[in-house]
Amino acid sequence: MDNVSTNSTEQATPIPEDEQSTNNKPSKRLLAITLSVLIFLLFSLALFVTYKKVFYKPAITKNSNAVNNAKNSETTTVPEKTTETEYSTVLTDATGRMTYKFPNGAFGDYKGNIQTWPGRHKHDFDQNYRFIMDSMLVIGDIKQSTDFKFLKPVEITAKYDEQYLTHLDRTEITFLFTKDATGTTRNPWTTLSTQLDPQHYTASTTGEQAGNYVLVAPLLCPEDTSEFDDNYDSSRTIGEVGATYYDGPGTAPRIIGTPFGQKISRIFDVKQDEEWFHFEARKGTTYIMETSDLAQGVKPLIIIYDTDGVTQVTSNPLRLEWKPDDRYFQYGDAKTFFIGVNAQPDSLTGCTAKFNFTLSEK
Predict the structure, then answer these.
(1) pLDDT band at 309, cuts 50/70/90?
(2) For 232, phi and psi rounded to 5 degrees?
(3) To 5 degrees, how large is the angle CA 354–CA 357–CA 361?
(4) Cβ within 8 Å of residue 89, ≥6 positions away
(5) Which segments within 119-178 are labelled E, that is strand?
(6) What are the record keywords, sorted (predicted)?
(7) DSSP result, 345-362
(8) Cα dihedral sign for 158, 164, 169, 171?
(9) Where are the alpha helices (DSSP H) in the chain?
(10) I want to staple 362 with a disulfide (CB 3.0 to 4.6 A). Which of 28, 97, 286, 338 is the partner?
């Protein structure tokens, strides 16, 4: 037969070692080029990051919401040369809600730091006012700042939240000022002319010197001085509080709030108003919660909450008699509970919606 098939088991002729080396050279060369490119890219990236951190300074423009970086800044420096915009410097405090705009020429010859500090939070202004927000503007060091006056008025804008206005007269929101930037020297509060934009929740004024700028508003009902007390964080104490929490083991409990059995006057100034209290319940003791002297149309609802201030234990309109179950006292003979007295949906509200609340032991 003329056709002969090739046996698959025949051995192939081996390639000499010098030829194998020649064939591998292109792949090694490609690998070396790739590594070189990667090293160059990493080096370039490192140079760029170093430039951004060390040399780059963002421009200060009229619409800047920060001065030294893209975040809300607490400190900046008066520029050596003013820009061609209307304002030379714009500074926003750490909360992002209070902004200061300094016009060209406001600093005179001063070339130093400008800072905003958190406000004092506790203020000695008229007790009819309630705090909304504040910010201390500090120029240079503290001693210098107290008496520093600007050559041109500084524009100050505050952006507030609806949640801060529940019990306040929002038509009377205003700025107060004192130059007491450190909180160590008492200076009289000055009421500043304030412009309101209710649609955008902003208030603005002008300032002539460094110091403490506070946004406040009066209560809707001046008699309702207990506000704000709408949650467990701001609840008022009734009765004795266990000594283990305050004076140490082995000492007697003491009264730090309103005594049991004493009437507490309250007002439902708005529909969502809640009056909160807390007390330390004792194992085996019955407690009576009741409302009295209700103005016509006032309809309170009494709610007892567990220690977390969220879990409802029981509720009833007008009056509630309650003895805590033993299951609440697994870790001792006393436990804190909260009481919320709320206006029912059809209750009268407003400055005439007055009532008294009493918590007694039986």
Answers:
(1) very high
(2) -65, -25
(3) 170
(4) 60, 67, 76, 78, 79, 101, 102, 114
(5) 129-139, 149-159, 174-178
(6) Membrane, Transmembrane, Transmembrane helix
(7) TT---STT-EEEEEEEE-
(8) positive
(9) 17-54, 142-146, 243-246
(10) 286
**Omega of the bond leading into 177 within 30 degrees of 0 (cis):** no
Tokens describing residue 75: 């400190």
Question: What are the residues whose beta carbons fall under 8 Å from the beta carbon of 100, sequence distance 6 or more?
Answer: 90, 91, 92, 114, 116, 137, 154, 155, 156, 207
Q: Name the one residue in this structure whose structure tokens are 């949650």.
A: 231
- State how far Cα 133 lies from the chain centre: 10
Q: Where are the beta strands (DSSP E) in 31-123?
A: 75-77, 87-92, 98-103, 113-118
**16 pLDDT higher than 90:** no
Closest by CA position to 296, among listed 247, 348, 341? 348
Report the b/e string of 196-235 with b at 16+ CB within 10 A: eeeeebbbbbbbbbbbbbbbbbbbbbeebebbbbbebeeb
pTM of the model: 0.65
In the Cβ-directed half-sphere of 112, how many Cα atoms lie within 13 Å? 12
- Could you tell me which of 259, 254, 232 has the C-alpha nearest to residue 243? 254
Residue-wise pLDDT tens digits, 110-139: 877 888 877 655 556 666 788 888 888 888
Tens digit of each residue's pLDDT (9 = 90 or more) over 162-204:
888 889 999 999 999 988 754 455 677 889 999 999 999 999 9
Structure tokens at 239: 């009765």
| pLDDT tens digits, one per residue of 210-269 | 888 999 999 999 888 888 888 788 888 998 765 444 455 555 655 567 889 999 999 999
Under DSSP, the state recorded for 49 is H
The pair of structure tokens assigned to 58 is 């963002």
The answer to whether the CB of 128 falls within 8 A of the CB of 105 is: no
Q: Using CA atoms, how far apart are residues 123 and 315, in angstroms rounded to an integer? A: 37
Q: Give how far the C-alpha of residue 196 lies from the chain's centroid of Cα atoms, to the nearest Å.
A: 22
